[in-house]
Amino acid sequence: MVARQFVVRHNGDEFPIDYDTDHGLEILKLQIFSLTSVEPDDQQILVEDERLLVDEGTDLNALSDKLKLVSITEAKDISKPSTSQEMSDEELARLLQAEEEALLLQQFSAVDNGEQFRSRVEPYVKQVLMYESPVRQEAARKTVPVDELEEKALISLAKEGNFNPSKDERDHSFLLQLLFWFKQSFRWVNAPPCDKCGHETSNIGMGAPLPSEIEYGGSRVEIYRCNSCSSITRFPRYNDPLKLVETRRGRCGEWANCFTLYCRAFGYDARLILDFTDHVWTECYSQVHGRWMHLDPCEGTYDNPLLYEKGWGKKLNYAIGISKDGVQDVTRRYTRKWHEVLSRRIIATESAVSSVLSSITRQCRSNYSAEALSILTDRDQRELEELEKASYLKPDTELSLPGRQSGSVEWRKSRSELGLAETEALGLSSCPVRKCVDAHVSAIYDSFSLLLSQLSDEHVSGDRLSDVMEVFKNFLLDIKSQPFKKRESSLDLKSFEISEKMKECIERLLDALSLKSQWSDDRVVRVTITGNPVNTSLALPVALDLVDEVINSCKNKVYLKDGLTFPRPNRLCSGMVIASGEQLPVGIATSAFEGTRANKWEEPNGAKGCWLIYKVPNAQKCDLESYDLMSANDVPERDPMDWVLEASSDGGSSWTVIDRQGSQLFESRFLRKSFKIGTRFVADTFRFRVLSVRDPNSQPRFQIGSIDLYAAPNSSPSEKINL
């Protein structure tokens, strides 16, 4: 194995690639494709310094690390310059000139010497100091299902192939799960429900605060009248996060205020971001990324700082980060139109703004040790360099950012925050190569298939089979409800005759779930976890959904066509996947291979055509015999209706259609359809190409709940499960 680091230039952009030369040229082309969207069979790779063409006979170990990519059509004229996506010298000069003009205008239009700006920022310094209160932090921690979020954080890392994360990686993943939990547990208030009857209310103005409301910073009180019973409901806008931990409701101010407390309660360096155009969110310092990271609890999104400018269409002016350690102007992080933002910064001159922020920060740090000051100063300097660089970057044109999702449509429309495009979620028109972490799914399918086959051999009736599955389901639910690091339960099989072969099948199933068994004479099996508990956390949802599906099939006497059964053995696993697009963060391409109903692959722009490529692991080839598709949880209009399945024996350079389907309808949610391959073909790569969804004119999206590929017997590539 020879590890190389290439830099591939394409259309003015540079793409660093870590690559193992033993994988061959086809894998390199797939990696390049995932970054550039130039399909492998349309790629020509050149050694940039020598202008040599890279082909199958090229020694990849001896190449220069500087490569250039052109499409075949571009390659007809190598000397023709490509369209640069970088900021050219001319563009940079124009931008700097625009900045100078904006700064000059600011000298004449600035309101004062910075006192008005100071008055906007300083009250929030007192606000963020509330987050340091041990009483408030403890109150916040008590409301969080820590064990559940820790498990989800470790599962998230495991799905990326990281089963032994560092502390920084665990902390980072837990923070994201805390964000998602907060999004689900906090309630947005357009108009509060009636306190008396629960019906809708309408605003009738403001009211005088009560002493009990003022105690928690509720100096502003909105008054609402019930549309049904005419009762009055008060909605105090509390500023004290201690009260917000109790009420768990509000608008963006309350959401960001309370979530920032939660971040501090779990030890994260966090700051409140005050947007002068009337929004508030949070930033946390990520040790994994070595920088501050944007988090918006209202939207449930993270690390998408261009959301407001590009997605919502906001005209930003000032975004100020406020924490116990001081205040920072972080506006540049949230814009790629700094010269335009400068023209709107007219409260004070840039020098006055800088002076005010420096003064407040010095005061905040006045009692810090020399060591602490040194650490913070170094971090401030690195952030300043990052923000300076961000000012001159172009936005990623492939990134689709949504308009605002929180709040009523009328309210968002009144604030002009519906966005520049009618999108519902973050998406990418291309996505990186991802590895399917699904060896456990295939192991569970194999073991359940063996168990069901044994039950059939022992002439167990359909009703009795359903009874057996119900026992397994109750067992799985019980062990899943236990703390994930200390799971244990009992599998009570006293009411069933258990042969030695059946016992072997059950033990194999438990092993697939990373569980160990201890049998008693009365056929009660004591079960505990073995090895890394995350393995069991990954496996249990797969097994539960599988058992549910088998039970429903037994009860409804629904069976797959063409003699195919579910589950069945020889499912492909651990392949590499790339797709035409995916929804972030939960609708990524590999979600379709995770074996659970909770996940799906969603392509934001796939209604009229999209694709997914699956590469068999370890350069192996197989003869695909069949495949299953399962509909997702909602929106039938997004189901696939017309598609082709293609195979390639040369890593994707050429394709052969091995199955074609048209006018397929998924009549219900989580409905599995199985298809036998019409044209058998030994291949190392497969492409699922969707031609149309059920209703491509009603919405732009495609989605699929799961994709399972099955090799013919004696053709399935072996994959050792080593989690």
UniProtKB/TrEMBL annotation:
Keywords for the protein's UniProt record, in alphabetical order: Metal-binding, Zinc
Transmembrane helix among keywords: no
Pfam families referenced in this protein's UniProt entry, alphabetically: Transglut_core
Chain ranges of the Transglutaminase-like domain: 244-299
A GO molecular function held by the record: metal ion binding
Similarity comment: Belongs to the transglutaminase-like superfamily. PNGase family.
Family annotation (PANTHER family): PAW DOMAIN-CONTAINING PROTEIN, PTHR48440
Name of the protein in question: Transglutaminase-like domain-containing protein
Record lineage: Eukaryota, Viridiplantae, Streptophyta, Embryophyta, Tracheophyta
